[in-house]
Design goal:
431 residues; globular; alpha/beta; binds nicotinamide-adenine-dinucleotide; Rossmann fold
Length: 431
């Protein structure tokens, strides 16, 4: 891989006093690296380095005490050559225009890797949801939905939950949009409660796909699930579901963490006994006999490491200290471009986010199909079809990894970029 960007010891970004690589910088590096592996029109790659549009709105929120505060919201739409824009909505203090663009780019690749007829988008509001009451969160969400009404829609751009948002947030957006359109429109968002058109199995789908891809990767590298040790950073929607499914399949999950730190047991934790973020927010360390820090989780000597919390946690500062044999990315963008290069040099395979956690958008696609047809699928059907789609995507990526002797990330990008480039070539660039 790009060894030319491998830093020398004592020359890391933090030692140089530089800001960590942004999601957008990482996404662009990854795109251009993958483009160098295949015969793809440079003009299309140039186009894909930029979002088609970034919408920015100001949201006035009346607090419960009657005061008014202003919040900023974004929706970045990257590329829609293969279908409507699709991507999550984040309520988090670190949301920024740049981050939304980078995450929107990843959504474009993710949908293409999965061969789903959607493009990529991402949005969010700069807010710490913990600072708001439920009534305030509802008012903020409804106003945001209204401000974005002209750019979202079931055939244009379909938001979904991400950090700080969930099924209830999607229900408010669907309602706000439907009231304004004077038509019940479940397909405008995915990740809704099943009672209003949400899909069974959507909530656990990203974690389920992480578990499926982990199983495939462990098989590929000749590990037996029963003998595998696993550490998971983040015990939310993605991390908790992935940890529990791996636990159920016989793996020994030695550490799981939340923002406060990790529960650790070298003999294996009972992951069902530890409350997930949704069941009891940030309570992991209160259910542990032994705790370790979040940084230490990443450096445990395990077979499989699943970073499933936030982005940029494996950087050039700690990549040399990672002792896992294999990394499967649950979060979006947990590994920086520089860290990827170090891990590649050290022979530690990294199965990328755009493949591993793509179960979320895949079941979102199933939900959208169910909404259009006004017909719900059973949980068994959702899980069966997810299994089929995930193993097909794994095979497509594996073929490119072997054909190009490439990393798993490059293999996934090659699959995605080839499909997107073909669609652009076929449709042409509007003059
Ligand atoms: P979540 O809010 O359900 O859970 C996040 C977990 O990470 C919590 O346990 C929280 O305590 C922990 N955490 C937060 N900040 C942390 C930090 N600095 N260090 C360690 N732990 C920290 O979120 P989620 O939906 O599981 O999303 C996690 C990641 O997965 C994000 O990168 C998200 O973009 C990505 N993702 C989510 C979905 C989805 O549908 N939920 C789909 C694909 C990818």
């Amino acid at each position: 891989m790009a060894s030319e960007s491998t830093p020398t010891a004592g020359d890391t970004a933090s030692e140089r006093g530089e800001a960590p690589e942004s999601a957008l910088e990482t996404a662009r590096h990854q795109l251009n690296e993958a483009a160098s592996l295949i015969d793809v029109d440079g003009n299309i790659v140039e186009r894909l380095n930029y979002p088609a549009a970034v919408h920015e709105v100001t949201i006035p929120l009346e607090r419960d005490d009657g005061s008014v505060e202003m919040y900023r919201g974004y929706r970045a739409q990257h590329d829609s050559v293969r279908g409507p824009y699709k991507g999550g909505l984040r309520f988090h203090p670190d949301v920024s225009r740049e981050e939304c663009i980078g995450l929107a780019m990843w959504m474009t690749w993710k949908c293409a890797v999965m061969d789903i007829p959607f493009g990529g988008a991402k949005g969010g509001v700069v807010v710490d949801p913990k600072d708001l009451s439920e009534a305030e969160t509802e008012r903020l969400t409804r106003r945001f939905a209204n401000e974005m009404r002209s750019v979202i829609g079931p055939m244009t751009d379909i938001p979904a939950p991400d950090m700080g948002t969930g099924a209830q947030t999607m229900a408010w957006i669907m309602d706000a949009y439907s009231v304004q359109e004077a038509e019940t429109t479940p397909g405008v968002v995915t990740g809704k409660p099943p009672v209003i058109g949400g899909s069974k199995g959507r909530e656990e789908a990203p974690g389920r796909s992480v578990a499926i891809i982990s199983r495939e990767a462990l098989n590929y590298y000749d590990y037996a699930s029963e003998d595998t040790t696993v550490a998971v950073q983040g015990f939310g929607s993605v991390g908790a579901n992935a940890a529990r499914l791996l636990d159920d399949r016989g793996a020994t999950v030695v550490a799981v963490s939340d923002v406060n730190g990790a529960a650790y047991d070298p003999d294996g934790l009972d992951t069902h006994e530890i409350p997930s973020h949704e069941e009891q927010p940030e309570a992991v360390t209160r259910h542990a006999d032994e705790t370790i820090s979040n940084e230490a989780v990443l450096e445990l000597d395990v077979d499989l490491l699943v970073p499933a919390a936030v982005g940029n946690v494996i950087t050039e500062d700690n990549a040399a200290d990672i002792r896992a044999d294999l990394i499967v990315e649950g979060a979006n963008g947990p590994t920086t471009f520089a860290a990827d290069s170090i891990l590649d040099d050290r022979g530690i395979p990294v199965i990328p986010d755009i493949l591993a956690n793509a179960g979320g958008v895949t079941v979102s696609y199933f939900e959208w199909l169910q909404d259009i047809n006004r017909r719900a699928w059973s949980r068994e059907r959702v899980n069966e079809e997810l299994e089929t789609e995930m193993t097909a995507a794994w095979e497509a990526v594996r073929r490119e990894v072997e054909a190009h002797d490439a990393s798993w990330r490059d293999g996934a990008y090659v699959v995605a970029l080839s499909r997107i480039a073909e669609a652009h070539e076929s449709r042409g660039l509007w003059p």
